[in-house]
Amino acid sequence: MASPASLPQYKSDFISACRAGNVLTFGTYTLKSGRISPYFFNAGLLHRADLVRAISLAYAHTLAAEPDLKFDVLFGPAYKGIPIAAATTLGLALVDEKRFGQISYSFNRKEAKDHGEGGIIVGAPLKDKRVVIIDDVMTAGTAMREAIDITEKQGGTLVGIVVAFDRMEKVPSPTDDDGIPRPSTIGEFRKEFKVPVLSILTLDDVSKSLAGMGSETELRRLEEYREKYRASD
Ligand SMILES: O=P(O)(O)OC[C@H]1O[C@H](OP(=O)(O)OP(=O)(O)O)[C@H](O)[C@@H]1O
Ligand SMILES: O=C(O)c1cc(=O)[nH]c(=O)[nH]1
pTM score, two decimals? Predict the structure, then answer.
């Protein structure tokens, strides 16, 4: 992926990291929502030290760009949200230790532990805290709804959401693939939860630079998919 000159440095660095890690791949993928996608953004591949640095700084700068967003805890839902929350907490201290030095992170266990310290939360308790949920991708928003539910049940207050990649897809419906545009998942979350929903990159950010990445057939399938699940906002 080439990085368009107009993008801020942290976004260009993040695109370069995605490229180095082959994070965006073409094929046939069943998504959590059940949609069959011709491309996939796999944040799990950003595991090398230099790529972890790029992703943690990109999330940290995305959060730092919101001066009014005050929060105490970054909550990363299992599983891919876990290393992202930990790495971004470090990234925040590197970007602005004065502002972010007291931020904590936590994550959930997918299955509650019934011995030792017990419970489903590891890391900072969420009770009475201002919580930003951090994850890799939002498509239909099911994973994010689960994370919001955990946050509320633990007594935390949701104040923001940040993801690496916004696939810019419409909210799911019973006639999901009717090709009729509906509001985007992220747009609906902004309206429903009245908190900032941030993403480092959107599909639009990278689509111009996709031309060198996939074959003509892969790019045509991507465009067909985009048309089918295109959001109206
Ligand atoms: O917006 P949605 O339609 O819910 O899909 C996106 C979510 O699905 C995947 O997580 P998954 O729940 O598969 O768990 P993982 O982190 O363990 O891979 C992905 O990491 C996103 O979090
Ligand atoms: O919707 C998903 O399940 C999904 C899409 C994507 O691009 N990457 C990912 O990890 N999950």
Answer: 0.91
